[in-house]
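Proteins fold reproducibly. Next comes a concrete instance:

***
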Amino acid sequence: MSRSMGRVTSGAVMASLLVAVVTSSAPASADPHETSSGTGSSSKAVCADAYKAGQTLRKNGSLRRARESLLLCASDRCPSVLQPDCMRWLTEVEAALPTVSFAAKGPDGKDVMNVRVSMDGEVVTDALDGKSVPVDPGQHTFKFERAGESPLEQQVVLREGEKARVVSVSWAKAAEPTATMHASDAAPSSGGRTAAYIIGGIGVAGLATFTTLAIHGMSRRSELEKECFGSCTEAQVDPVKTELLVADVALGVGVAAIGVATVLFLTSGSSSPERASSAPTTATRPARRGPSFALDVGPRTGGAAVGVSGRF
C-alpha cells in the first residue's frame, strides 16, 4: 500500500494534466437540454471527479469510498485514457481493504441470525448471513442488537489487507464457575475425613498391639519372679523389658493417633457448612491445603515418649 501511495504522489502532476485534458475535450453545448452533448460533457466531468477522488480517498485511508470512485472511473462509461490507472488503483485498494463477517450466539449457546449490527453508529446489516463486508482499516466499535436482549459491543482494530476477520458476541449466561468453585472446596473436607479414618485405624491397631504385648510381658515377668526372683540373668530379663517397652510405645502411638483422627474428623465436618454458606466468586483462589501432622515416637529411660505436632 505504501508503494502505491508513492506512485500516487509522484504521478499527481500527470494525473492533473490528464484530468484537464479530459475535461477540456468535452464539447460545449449551447443548449443545456441537448441530450447527446450535455450527457457526454457531464459524464466526462463525473469520471474526472471520480479519478481525482479515488486518489485522494485512498491516501486518506477511506478505502471503501475510494473503491466506489475507482469502480466508476474504471468502467466503460469513462474515457479509455482514465481506465488503466483506475483499474490498477482499484486492484490495489481491493487488496488493502479489510473484510469482516459477524457471528452471534443466543442464551442457549446456539447461533442466531436475527441480529442487527452497526459499525460506529452506521447500520451494516439487519441479519447475519455469514457473508463478509468491506470495512476501512482502523479502530471500529461494532454494536450487536437482538430483540429481548441487551445490546453487546465489540471494539476491533482492523489492519490493511486483513481478510475474513470474524467479530462475534454471545448472550449465553455462564453459571459454571460457581459450581466449579464449590466442587473444588469440597475436596479438602472429603480428604480430611478420609485421613481421619486412616489415622483412627492406626490408633486402634496401636492400642490392640499394646494390649497384647502388655499382657504377655506382664505374664512373663510374673513367671520370672517365681523362677528366679532376685537372681535372674540379663538374658532372661531383657526380652521382657523389650516387650513391655514396645507395648508402651504402641500405647503412645495409639492414643496420639486416635487424638489426631478425632481432631481431623471434627475439623473437616465443621468447615463444610462455612464453605457452603460463603458467597461464590469468579476470582481464582489458591488451593486449600488439608490438615497435616507428625508423630515423634522414641524410647526414653524407663519407657517411651510420643510427641504430636501438626497444622489443622
In short: DSSP finds seven helices and nine strands in the chain. The beta strands are 99-105, 116-119, 122-125, 133-134, 138-145, 152-158, 165-170, 292-300, 303-311. The chain has a mean pLDDT of 76.
